[in-house]
Amino acid sequence: MPEQPFELSAELQQAVSSFFQRIPFNQVLGIQLGELSPERVVMYLPMKAELIGNFVHGILHGGVIASLLDVAGGAMALIGAFERHQQLPSAERMARLSKLGTIDLRIDYLRPGRGQHFTAQAVLLRSGNKVAVVRSELHADDGTLVAVGTGTYLCG
């Protein structure tokens, strides 16, 4: 009998949203959640003066870029882990998911982060029993690809 396709219920969307909104660093950066689905995660970041790394040119700081790609990647890994562990009792699933953390993160900075609004997208490349691999991209408001990242996450 084929498995039912995984759907991110409203309850699970709220759980992922709440998890990431409760992280103070995400609030400091001003990360806004967009789409949360089994296919992809989308997050937004409005530019503000505190996020500038090159004050002469008003360019987004590289650490902010890496952080945003990591947060989007972590959210995607969490959703992938929900799918892999959906058969577990709720308490055991939450205990496993509470261990979510970044193992490795590689960022390729392609162009300067110029703009007033940035969009990060993440897709799951692989979700195993304990580790997930996620690919992320950051685009400026004019569509320019600013950076790409590949993250490996411990997720259970």
Automatic annotation (TrEMBL):
Residues 57-147 form the Thioesterase domain. Its EC number is 3.1.2.20. Keywords: Hydrolase. It comes from the Bacteria. The keyword Hydrolase applies. SUPFAM superfamilies: Thioesterase/thiol ester dehydrase-isomerase. It is an enzyme of class 3 (hydrolase). GO terms for molecular function: fatty acyl-CoA hydrolase activity. The keyword Hydrolase applies. It catalyses: a fatty acyl-CoA + H2O = a fatty acid + CoA + H(+); a long-chain fatty acyl-CoA + H2O = a long-chain fatty acid + CoA + H(+); a medium-chain fatty acyl-CoA + H2O = a medium-chain fatty acid + CoA + H(+). NCBIfam families: PRK11688.1, unchar_dom_1. Belongs to the YigI thioesterase family. This is Medium/long-chain acyl-CoA thioesterase YigI. The lineage of its organism: Bacteria, Pseudomonadati, Pseudomonadota, Gammaproteobacteria, Pseudomonadales.
